[in-house]
Design goal:
The chain has 204 residues and is an all-alpha fold. 60% of the residues lie in helices and 0% in strands. The chain folds into two domains: 9-124; 155-200, no CATH class.
Length: 204
């Protein structure tokens, strides 16, 4: 960031309001996306295939729709004359401040960039106005949820059959399989046809 242009005092109410609006837009997107993702599990358990397909299609558009909603709201609220370079610089700094304690700061930064790049001229795509690198580390964020955010599987180490069984059981589905071993074997055979047996078998 250009140090000469770096504001010594964050004094723009417009900049804060824009930052708050963008973060609210991201939080809405994340909330809706999680809700529909959680519904996907219930649809599978209850064999509602059509509803699952419609939800999957809807999820594809969620991000772009939330970005466009946010852009439209900002364009309706503010005139171009109000959105000076100084305002945009402060907007980014206010946004960084609002991310303190946020659980998805890097995703929020990406959303911020998406909104800004639809409003700003291409010449403003640099570190003064958008996030070129993450500024908030996610490494030490405390999680409220006891369940892990993601799991790692090692089919080459554990074997494909064991890995596939672990993947399925980790979903904790409330609907029993008629023959899980049979289904796992069918998937294993299909993957072996595509990738070959060697990369997915454990070391000898």
């Amino acid at each position: 960031m250009n140090q000469a242009a770096f504001p010594k005092l964050l004094s723009s109410q417009i900049a804060f309001d824009i930052a708050r609006a963008i973060l609210d837009g991201f939080d809405k997107h994340y909330r809706l996306f999680r809700q529909t993702s959680q519904q996907a599990k219930r649809y599978f358990e209850t064999a509602q295939w059509q509803a699952a397909q419609q939800a999957a299609i809807a999820r594809i558009d969620y991000y772009d729709r939330r970005v466009q909603e946010c852009v439209q709201a900002l364009e309706d609220e503010y005139d171009d004359e109000e959105l000076s370079d100084d305002v945009w610089r402060e907007t980014k700094l206010h946004f960084i401040g609002l991310l303190s304690g946020h659980k998805q700061p890097e995703l929020a930064e990406t959303f911020f960039n998406s909104v800004c790049c639809k409003i700003l001229h291409r010449g403003y795509y640099h570190n003064d106005f958008i996030f070129v690198r993450p500024v908030v580390s996610t490494e030490y964020i405390d999680a409220d949820e006891l369940l892990p955010t993601f799991r790692v599987y090692y089919p080459h180490q554990d074997g494909l059959k064991v890995t596939l069984q672990r993947i399925v059981t980790n979903f904790q589905l409330q609907r029993p399989f008629a023959d899980l071993d049979r289904d796992i074997e069918l998937v294993r055979q299909r993957l072996a046809l595509i990738f070959g047996p060697e990369p997915l078998e454990p070391d000898a």
